[in-house]
Amino acid sequence: MTVSQSHAPFYNVINPDYPYREEEEEMVRRSIIASSELGAGIVVIHGGSRPYRPDYRKNKQENIEYFKPHLEFAAKYGVKLAIENLFDLNDSEKRVRVPRYLADPEDLIDLVDTLHQSYDNVGIVWDFGHANLMHWNQPECLEMMGDRLIATHVQDNYGVIDDHLLPFLGTVEWEPIMKTLKKINYQGVFAYETHKMTDRLPDPMIDAMMRYAYELGEYLLTLAD
């Protein structure tokens, strides 16, 4: 079995009041080391965002300061970091939408380009489900990212919550996405992030679901032609 990418633990990395920062950071470092030992050349990682803070320049600078030591650490182990696109949150008590830094692909590209001036082991992982929650035109986003895109999270939803469904079980338009991935010559991994597909499934049905997921992925790849 080949391990192609992994996912670091995540939390709001620029929240100064987060009480378990030291523990989380130790787990992030361990995930980079473990990924290297397993031969996974890419570790997916999340940035952070100050809630209710529209000052995106400050958000960017704080993320840069966070990622610098991690990129240096990852480079020692021959690992790249792929920063993931996020999505805005909903505050049910205040009944407002909470904007988050890195939910906008332009901000993600800007951050990665800035980091890339000093580090060559950084890129973007695009989560199609997260983008669907933001109602982005995903083919346009993929073209903007181009060769910055080094990993994907393949999942679906109905544009309301982060369901992590299999492709075609939500509202993501997969055919134009697949054709655009081919157009930009994406060479990275096509990674399912659909762990909820077996959450409530009886054990005797899990193997059948896994076979279905595999066949669905094979079909999805044909849409690029």
TrEMBL record:
Xylose isomerase-like TIM barrel domain boundaries: 6-201
TM region positions: none
GO molecular function: endonuclease activity
Pfam family, one: AP_endonuc_2
Iron-sulfur recorded as keyword: no
PANTHER family per the UniProt record, alphabetical: HYDROXYPYRUVATE ISOMERASE (PTHR12110), XYLOSE ISOMERASE-LIKE TIM BARREL DOMAIN-CONTAINING PROTEIN (PTHR12110:SF21)
Protein name as catalogued: AP endonuclease, family 2
Organism: Hungatella hathewayi DSM 13479
